[in-house]
Amino acid sequence: MKLIGSLTSPYVRKVRVVLAEKKLDCRFELDNVWSPETTVGASNPLGKVPCLVLDGGDAMFDSRVIVEYLDTLSPVGRLIPPQGQGRERAEVKTWEALADGVLDAGVLAWLEANWPGRAPGERSQAWTDRQLAKVRAGLRAMDQGLGDKPFCTGVYLSLADVAAGCALGWLAFRLPEVAWREEHPNLARLLDKLGQRPSFIETAPRLS
Ligand code: GSF
Questions:
Q1: CATH fold of 2-71
Q2: What residue's CA is closest to ligand 1, atom 15?
Q3: If one looks up domain 86-202 in CATH, what number appears?
Q4: CB < 8 Å & 24+ apart, contacts of 170-178
C-alpha cells in the first residue's frame, strides 16, 4: 500500500495515526496538491490528499473511507466498533464527522486568507467569520461531549480521539488565533495526552 499525502494535512495525519496505532505497513509518498507538479490527480480525480493506493493499483479516498478500511485489516488496536455494535459505531463516527467538520471549516477559513490564487481584494471577512463560527461551535460541542472522560467515547482510545486530536493539532498549527485552550480545558487535556503517543509525535504537522 502507498499513502499519498502531505506533512501539513490533518486528514492525512488521521490516516497516518491510524496506520501507526494499528502497526500497519504503508509507504508514504509526499505530494503537494497546490503545486503544478502534483500527481495525485492520477489516483484521485478530486485532486485531494489523503489517497491510499492499494498494491493492485486501486485507489481509495477520502480519509473516512481509508481509516474505516484500515481498521478492518488487523484486529490490533481496533479503533471503530464493529457493525454489530451499531450505536457505539455511530457515536465514534459522529465524533469523526464533528472533528472533520471543524477542520473543513477551519481549512476554508485558512484558505480564504492564504490561498495565493485569491487577490487581497477578493478575500471575504464575512465568509471567514462564518467558517470560524463553525469552528468555535464545533469546539464547544467537542469539549462538552468529552467532559472529564479519559477519551471521547469513554475509557478506550478510538477513532473519535484520533480525529479530535488531528483537528486540535491542526488548529494549533495553522489557526493559533482561535486560542481554544483556555476556554476548553477538557480538549487541552486530551490533546496533551494524545501528544505523548508515538503515533501523534511522529506525525506532528510540519512544513518540511
Ligand atoms: C478532505 C481532504 C482535503 O480537503 C478527507 O480526506 O477527509 N474530506 C476529505 N484535503 C486537502 C488538503 S488539506 O486541507 O488537508 C486537499 O487535498 N485539498 C486540495 C484541493 O484542491 O482542495
A1: Glutaredoxin (3.40.30)
A2: 9
A3: 1.20.1050.10
A4: 170/10, 170/13, 170/103, 170/106, 170/205, 171/102, 171/106, 171/135, 173/8, 173/205, 174/8, 174/106, 174/110, 174/205, 175/106, 175/109, 175/110, 175/135, 178/106, 178/132, 178/135, 178/136, 178/139
